[in-house]
Specification:
Elements lengths: L10 E5 L12 H12 L4 E3 L28 H5 L14 H15 L2 H13 L1 H16 L10 H4 L3 H10 L1 H27 L3 E7 L7 H5 L14 E5 L9 E6 L3 H6 L3 H13 L2 E5 L6 E6 L9 E4 L2 H12 L4 E3 L7 H9 L4 E4 L21 E4 L8 H6 L3 H10 L9 H8 L5 E5 H4 L29 H13 L4
Parallel strand pairs: 1-2, 1-12, 2-3, 3-6, 6-9, 10-11, 11-12
Antiparallel strand pairs: 4-5, 4-7, 7-8
Helix pairs in contact: 3-8, 4-5, 5-8, 11-12
């Protein structure tokens, strides 16, 4: 099967989530970052999921698989709208700010703007109506998860929902307006990037959060009991890193229901992502072949079992619907031949992490000489240490293997590993921004298995030396990635 057209040439990318920009939003810093990428000869900007997060701010456990995170909205761009009264848009709380903005929009917007808003609401109705109602009900229930609401709201009894829709009509409209503003700003940023040759590379977790609009709206598609509690949850089995495995807690899919509905839920989910991104990474791709199913009553992942998933049926359906699947498979960890065959059948590149390559023997699949063209090579990802932090923490025998493999190069870290990624045969090579800035482990984005202090890292433009773009441009040219 032919690969997506984005892989028609060798490319390089930089991994940086929107929240890691100095401002943390879609404003001037995002556009300046695109300019930085263009000057460095980089044609891919990879980021994490864009959805509204829970209090832990993890973009991998969102309140919606479709909606945008209002924290990413740029206030200055909002103030620049022709209907806005900037002096009245200074409320520090985003929800109140959006309420003020909508009232100004309602009073002063012209017909073209009103038609644009109404058109957005109509086009996105397949997820938007459920999402705004979910968020408003969650607000009215003091942010408690939907499965702790009163039974009539938890179970979506039509009369109860209609009553709330009438009583909270204005609040629901403001929440729709917030999403309208988010996606307007996003699409403007994407257009700016694409015009400068930069593709946007998104991220789609395989599972969705239990406390999400998606699960509340269509509970029959998930492994839930009549009270909304999971009967079986996702995770991974015991391995070298954990004697009890990992119990993630996400409800699994009732695949028989998805098959009955011809995978319509997946069509809708991917549709939203393709409207935002040129390329999408699927997190935990192996779960489409088989997933580790854990009884919800188990506190650990020990008593789970592998259960087959209809990956081929799903991707056949998506391919028929969309015509092309610009997807990258996160295929890290212990991957079976069946998972590899599934990935290759749909021409999805896999991932190669150079930080995983050293300390063993020549058969390690992450070593450069073992890599293949249909892959994406990374120095590290958002879940890894920074490359400098990784190098500084290496055990002596691993460091010795690394230098022996590299030919005892005198080039400083992390640029030695950056060069290795860019020189690889992989169609796409991606480097986290922390590595370009030569930052140590104090600047990592996430430490898996922990809940405090993650997803907070931001860089400063003062740390972006003017030579970085030129150095990266030279390497991109040297290794055919311009």
């Amino acid at each position: 099967m032919q690969q997506a057209h984005i892989f028609d040439q060798r490319r390089s990318g930089v991994l940086l989530h929107i929240t890691s920009l100095p401002s943390g939003n879609m404003g001037a810093d995002a556009y300046r970052f695109v300019d930085f990428l263009q000057s460095a000869g980089v044609t891919v900007w990879q980021m994490l999921p864009l959805g509204p997060t829970h209090d832990d701010r993890s973009p991998y456990q969102c309140l919606s698989a479709h909606a945008g995170n209002n924290r990413l909205i740029c206030r200055e761009l909002l103030k620049s709208q022709p209907w806005a009264e900037p002096a009245k848009l200074n409320d520090p709380k985003m929800s109140r700010l959006m309420a003020h903005a909508y009232r100004q929009f309602d009073l002063r917007a012209d017909e073209t703007e009103r038609e644009a808003f109404n058109g957005f609401c109509e086009q996105q109705r397949y997820w938007l109506d459920d999402y705004v109602l979910f968020r408003e009900l969650r607000h009215l229930n003091q942010s408690r998860p939907w499965f702790e609401w009163s039974p009539e709201l938890r179970d979506r009894e039509p009369e109860a929902l209609e009553s709330v829709a009438i009583e909270r009509k204005d609040a629901l409209t403001i929440r729709r307006f917030e999403q309208f503003i988010f996606f307007r700003q996003w699409h403007q940023l994407r257009a700016y990037a694409n015009e400068r040759g930069v593709k946007l590379f998104g991220d789609m977790p395989i599972f969705v959060a239990h406390d999400s609009a998606d699960v509340w709206a269509e509970p029959e598609l998930f492994t839930l009991d009549d009270s909304g509690q999971p009967t079986r949850v996702a995770g991974v089995p015991p391995d070298y890193f954990s004697e009890t495995g990992q119990r993630w807690g996400n409800p699994l899919y009732e695949w028989s229901k998805h098959i009955e509905q011809h995978f319509d839920w997946w069509h809708r989910r991917l549709q939203t992502q393709l409207e935002c991104f040129d390329l999408i990474r699927i997190d935990h791709f192996r779960g489409f072949d088989s997933c580790w199913e854990i009884p919800a009553s188990c506190e650990t992942a020990v008593d789970g079992q592998w259960v087959a998933a209809p990956g081929e049926q799903l991707f056949d359906s998506l391919l028929t619907h969309f015509g092309e699947l610009p997807l990258v498979a996160e295929d890290l960890g212990i991957i079976t031949p069946e998972v590899t065959a599934l990935r290759e059948k749909y021409a999805m590149p896999g991932m190669k992490i150079l930080q995983f390559a050293f300390g063993g023997d020549a058969s390690n699949p992450y070593l450069p000489h073992q890599q293949c063209v249909d892959s994406v090579t990374y120095t590290g990802t958002h879940d890894n240490n920074t490359t400098l932090g990784w190098y500084q923490s290496l055990e002596p025998h691993v460091k010795a293997h690394f230098h022996a493999y590299m030919g005892d190069s005198t080039e400083n870290m992390p640029w030695l590993l950056i060069r290795t990624a860019l020189s690889s045969v992989s169609e796409l090579a991606v480097v986290p921004m922390q590595d370009l800035l030569s930052l140590d482990g104090a600047h990592r984005m996430n430490i898996p298995g922990t809940t405090d202090g993650n997803w907070c890292w931001q860089f400063s433009w003062d740390s972006v030396d003017s030579s970085i773009a030129a150095r990266l441009h030279a390497l991109n040219g040297l290794y055919g990635r311009l």
